Amino acid sequence: MTPTLVRQHRPHQGGTPRVDASARARDWAEIQERMLVPLYEAVYERVEAGAGTRLLGLGCGSGLALLMATARGAAVTGVDAGAPERLALARARLLGDNARTSAAPDAGARLIDGVPADAADPALPPYNLITAFQPAGCTAGDYEQLTALLESAVPLLGRGHPVALAGWGPPERCATSAVLRVAARLTGSDDPELPFGPRDLGGTDGWRPARRDDLEQVAERAGLKPDGSGRVACPFGYADINSAVRGLLSSGLFDAAAGATDQTQVEKELEEALHPYLRPDGTVWMPNVFRYVIARKR
Which UniProt key words apply to this protein (predicted)? Predict the structure, then answer.
């Protein structure tokens, strides 16, 4: 059983914490990314993704959602910026022997280290599905970033076709919200009455719970018409405390906290926050609910 840890903020070391980017990407791909599989499946079922689907995945990371789409017969293009280690894993997953090539049409997938505009191809029809599966509503400014990303991607989508957005569900339905507050507390932005989420859609200061219509507002700001939503249970389950800490750190949600204090302090605080979810067999289990919105190009 993990001992109770005393909270003691260490002096700020300054700058972004040094991390092993390759190890962090592997932890994401091997531990954390699979937690969102029920979300991916629910969205693909809702939009009937399959043969004939031309999917553009924004923030595709290490490519698990794209891989699941290809299993349904979809042709996929993934775009991510500033995540070369994750994209390298996505290439290995999706392109196999062609992994050294950034775009291999014969392999049925394209992976692009860049922005949505880089995924344009005049020789091909417009995309008929865009996904943004990185859950919004957890870090300051993420709704603004998602809006900007969508605004640049929507011109590549055919009229009337869907865009799928994902976000955290209500804090009372997300056990992980208590753990995410570690990041808020260590960066000095925590309020005990406000579990997590930006104060308002355009703000970058303070924290508040995710509201029901946040994703709809993002869609509308990007020129899309909301056309339905759903909730999906996505429990976070880990083999042990160490795996839980590694998985959560791989999300990048605690990087600001590590910069404000230090990596060791963040890991200790995470272990303490995870203790209530430690089961007798040593595994960690946190029930969560995520929300998705389907919007269409006008």
Answer: Methyltransferase, Transferase
Residue 266 lies in a domain: no
d(C-alpha 11, C-alpha 88), whole Å: 35
CB under 8 Å to 202, separation ≥6 — which residues? 143, 144
Identify whether 79 is part of a domain: yes
Question: Which candidate, 135, 118, 156, 108, places its Cα nearest to that of 36?
Answer: 135
Task: Compute and round to an integer the Cα radius of gyration of the chain.
Answer: 19
pLDDT tens track for 81-140: 989 999 999 999 999 865 554 444 334 699 999 999 999 999 999 999 999 999 987 776
**pLDDT (tens digit, 9 = 90+) per residue, 148-173?**
999 999 999 999 999 999 999 988 89
Alpha-carbon distance 25 to 42, whole Å? 25
Per the CB < 8 A criterion, the answer to whether 2 and 241 are in contact is yes
Structure tokens at 231: 């909730």
Percent of all residues in the chain with a pLDDT value above 70, rounded to a whole number:
82
Q: Which domain holds residue 156?
A: 21-178+211-238+285-297
CB 103 within 8 A of CB 123: no
> What's the distance, Cα to Cα, between the start and end of the chain in Å?
54
Instruction: Report angle CA 159, 136, 156 to the nearest 5 degrees.
Output: 25
CA–CA distance, 266 with 90 (Å, rounded to integer): 28
Any idea what the CATH number is for the domain that residue 289 is in? Answer: 3.40.50.150
Residue 124 located in a structural domain: yes
Residue 263 in any domain: the answer is: no
Q: What is the pTM of this model?
A: 0.85
Give the Cα separation of 90 and 106 in Å (integer): 16
Domains held by the chain: number = 1
**Percent over 90 (pLDDT), the chain:** 67
- Residue 187: both structure tokens together: 């960066």
Name residue, tokens 């508040």.
208
